[in-house]
Design a protein that fits this description.
Strand order of the largest sheet: 7-6-5-8-9
Strand content: 5-15%
CATH topology of the largest domain: Rossmann fold
Number of helices: 12
Structural class: alpha/beta
Helix content: 25-40%
Shape: globular
CATH architecture of the largest domain: 3-Layer(aba) Sandwich
Distance between the termini: 28 Å
Number of strands: 9
Radius of gyration: 20 Å
Length: 325
């Protein structure tokens, strides 16, 4: 078993490490089907959820994961805290260090904030990136890959990668850290990834990304993807008009009943949530048997249990503790 130091992105996550996380998540998922779901594995450890951006799903998922491993959980929200009074990330980190945090799950509006926290020497705790700016959201990509693998291979999932699986990611790629993390992880696991979006919602330079680009959703669906991932339109991050109207966007890039019917047999539909029903996805698509939305939520707890387990199951070298002082 590998003990991780941090989980900051998927771009630098090896295939072996990714598969280990997914396989441990399979074990965690098995425990969650028992009558007693709680494990004593991380008893005595402290996990801090440090959220500088609003979140419901991700924070609750990490909290549930930590508590089911018997860790103590501290939820720290920037709103109403000393951060809102001007406290720096360094001061906050050193406060957490003094409190004895073993792991810090951080969501921050600035890309790179988790890496800064992990490499600064301010804390000895392991750091998990729960979303930073428009950079990455690694545990979301891991739970998406877990969901695709489970739907594809069922109970025969352990040890399997996604070689040859075709995944099409649709929507607001420009503002999506979920899309970025999925692109790198899915490629590492052997999947073929296609991005579909209006030209205005594709990042300026994706020449280094291991993807194909398509601007026509109907054309992409006709190609027969195994999984179709619909991204949320992040209106709160948009300071300009990236498409004429929401109605026009939905007409060209929304997954409606007609497009749902056009999907190949066995194709599944994913969405990282929260969903804008009627914009990027219709109610018919969101609630159809092809939809994995609720499975993704459940799988997210198992995957985050696996990440915290691998992060905290072993002691860090004493030299690392000394360096962080």
């Amino acid at each position: 078993m590998t003990v991780m130091r941090h989980l900051l992105d998927t771009q630098h996550l090896s295939r072996a490490a990714a598969l280990e996380i997914l396989d441990v998540a399979e074990d965690m998922a098995d425990t969650q089907r028992r009558e007693v779901k709680k494990l004593p594995t991380l008893r005595g450890r402290t996990v801090v959820n440090l959220f500088f951006e609003d979140s419901t799903r991700t924070r609750i998922s990490f909290e549930a994961a930590a508590k089911r491993l018997s860790a103590d959980v501290i939820n720290f929200s920037a709103k109403g805290s000393s951060v809102s009074k001007g406290e720096s990330l360094q001061d906050t980190a050193q406060t957490l260090q003094a409190m004895g945090a073993d792991a810090v799950v951080i969501r921050h509006g600035a890309s790179g904030a988790p890496r800064t926290l992990a490499t600064s020497g301010w804390i000895t705790a392991g750091v998990v990136n729960a979303g930073d700016g428009t950079h990455e959201h690694p545990t979301q990509a891991l739970l998406d890959a877990f969901t695709i693998r489970k739907r594809t291979y069922g109970d025969d999932s352990r040890g399997r990668d996604l070689d040859g699986i075709r995944v099409t990611i649709v929507g607001d790629v420009l503002h999506s850290r979920v899309a970025r993390s999925n692109v790198w992880l899915l490629h590492t696991l052997g999947a073929q990834v296609t991005l579909v979006a209006p030209p205005t919602l594709v990042p300026q330079d994706v020449s280094g990304w291991p993807v194909e680009i398509d601007y026509d959703l109907d054309h992409a669906i006709a190609a027969g993807p195994d999984a179709l991932m619909m991204l949320r339109i992040q209106l709160e991050r948009m300071s300009a008009a990236y498409f004429p109207t929401e109605r026009e966007y939905s007409r060209r890039y929304g997954l409606d009943a007609r497009r749902l019917d056009a999907l190949a047999d066995g194709s599944i539909v994913l969405h990282p949530g929260p969903m804008n029903r009627g914009l990027e996805i219709s109610a018919e698509a969101a609630d159809s048997p092809r939809s994995t939305v609720l499975e993704q939520v459940a799988n997210g707890v198992s995957v985050r249990m696996a990440v915290l387990y691998l992060l905290l199951a072993g002691e860090r070298p004493e030299t690392e503790r000394e360096d962080a002082r």
